[in-house]
Amino acid sequence: MATPILVVDDSAMSRKLLIKALPADWNVEVTQASNGQEALEAYRGGNAHVIFLDLTMPVMDGYEVLENLKKEGLNAFVIVISADVQPKAQERVKALGAIAFLRKPVKTKEISAVLEEFGIL
Prior knowledge:
Elements: E1 3-8, H1 12-21, E2 28-33, H2 36-44, E3 50-53, H3 62-71, E4 77-82, H4 87-95, E5 100-103, H5 108-117
Helix pairs in contact: 2-3
């Protein structure tokens, strides 16, 4: 059975690059969202066992998504993928429930390492 994943980024190119970086042997069903509001709708629709989340987006940013997921009793693994690598940003997303913070552009081996660490892959 395919793992439902959600790729959230306002840049279509960033979403495409991230999807290409996913482990080739990982059976997934990909849903995409271009902002936080779309991400929450997809999550609530059951389309997200694993969420790859950008932080800087219009409508609703990644921090707001994490805050909402936390309030709703998050039952997905969230991996933040961002160019904002400030220690404060990393601490904040982890406090909000993200399991990992990876820097853009992300590499397949980095994604695989996180997935393996948490028993997802």
